[in-house]
Structures are given as structure tokens and as C-alpha cells.
Design goal:
By secondary structure, the chain is of the alpha+beta class. It contains 2 helices and 3 strands, in the order H-E-E-E-H. It has a 3-stranded antiparallel beta sheet with strand order 1-2-3.
Length: 79
Amino acid sequence: MSSRAHHDAARLRRLKRLAARYGLAVLVAERANSKIAGGGYMLTDDDTRKPLLGGQPPYSASLDDIEEFIERNTQPEAD
């Protein structure tokens, strides 16, 4: 596994944990597909499974898109 692949895997794990804190889920396309445009990820509401990002076309969000969406649309937890 290349260094870039390790970095992306670690980043995906971190984003999944961050998303879960806000009731969101990061979904990954099972395999590369010519119908998938973009990064191969989707952000959904964990309860309703409604796509919030990367739903049209399916799995069109990148990790950068998901990180930006979470930062823009959530408030930091108060200590």
C-alpha cells in the first residue's frame, strides 16, 4: 500500500469518526465504476440515510468535499 493510500485511509477513518459525532455517516463506493463521477464518497444522515453530499450522482463527493461540509455545517461541541 502506498503512502498516499495510507494517508487516505487514515483520513477516511478520522472523517467517519467526526461525522458520527454529528449523526452523519460517510459511505464509500464498493468499487470503482465508470458511473461514479468524483471521489467515490457520500455523506448521509445516519438516521434517515438521506444523502447530504455526493448523492447526485451517487458517490460523487471527495474526502475534501466531506471535510469542508462537516466543518461548515456543524458547530464545535462545547466543553
